[in-house]
Specification:
homodimer; 167 residues; mainly alpha; Arc Repressor Mutant, subunit A; 6 helices; disordered N terminus; DNA-binding
Amino acid sequence: MSLSTEPTGWQQSSETTPELEAYTLLRQVHSMLEMYNRYDLRGEDLTVPQFMILNYASRSGVPLSEISARMMCDNSNLTGIVDRLIAKGYVERRPDPNDRRVSLICLTEAGAEKLRNLRPRHHERLRKRMRSLSEHEVQQLRELLRSLYSGLLAPVEDDRNGHPADD
Amino acid sequence: MSLSTEPTGWQQSSETTPELEAYTLLRQVHSMLEMYNRYDLRGEDLTVPQFMILNYASRSGVPLSEISARMMCDNSNLTGIVDRLIAKGYVERRPDPNDRRVSLICLTEAGAEKLRNLRPRHHERLRKRMRSLSEHEVQQLRELLRSLYSGLLAPVEDDRNGHPADD
DNA sequence: TTGAAACTGTTTCATTTGAAACAATATTGA
DNA sequence: TCAATATTGTTTCAAATGAAACAGTTTCAA
């Protein structure tokens, strides 16, 4: 999709709530930032999820399921992405000597170097893109999201079946 | 992925900024709410993107590209999803008499009924899930996101190549 | 010790997504 | 008018995602 700064043609629906508006905006901001990240990584031989795995891996190795927990996705999602990172030479799989079920995701020297080069620029670009918020507003946003996130982790009372089963 | 309320094993990286923390939390909240939505729609014969299209369609018909603009995705993404909604009988394609390029996405009576039944429950669940924020905090969050979103729509000055080309 | 249960990662399958190329149609400016 | 340009939606391909089933391994309680 091409990014346009033109005013859009459609207007807000009348039947809405502050919660829905906040959620809609959250999705829009998420979508925009994702788009920017994709664009940045375009010339770097990396996709967004590939870069994310690189960020969570380490030279000494991190279990795949620790990475999937931090990325809030299923193990099965990562198998293929790791395969592609291996093909590109940025990570490798090593068996965990202490637990034969575990496979450790290790940054190669090339991967570590890529990350050293990319991460600071990545953070700086994010900082610049959020400049429409003041320092104080960024902290306010962070605290609101932190509080919302904690609330989401706890089951909703007064509403059985209000959340996925914890299997 | 199964949703767990257990404390996670990993800890915050030391090298971080308020902006990065806010963005990470935004991704986490987005991921949680997406997970809840998926779970809710599970028994409703719908996926999240299918439900989203249903919400943007109407009895009188909406051009596909208007829907893709609101969903911030490419037209090509919607072709397949609309096909599946047609197969389920919730939507149909009709040619626009005024512009033969356009195909209007129209809710069928079944689709409209589904929506009448689902939408209020959907909004109510969202409201409950955000109860960890006070009414005032929800509005605060909404305004911060609104402001951030506006800033993201405008190109970043002092940083050419700081945003995808507007082709 | 051993058998049931839990955990880890892979495989498989269907769906979604991103991007490019394309055909059909519309718009515009010379 | 008419040729260049833009828009709309589809097709195609690669990548990512969600969910279920699975094999190998570990844990734990009887």
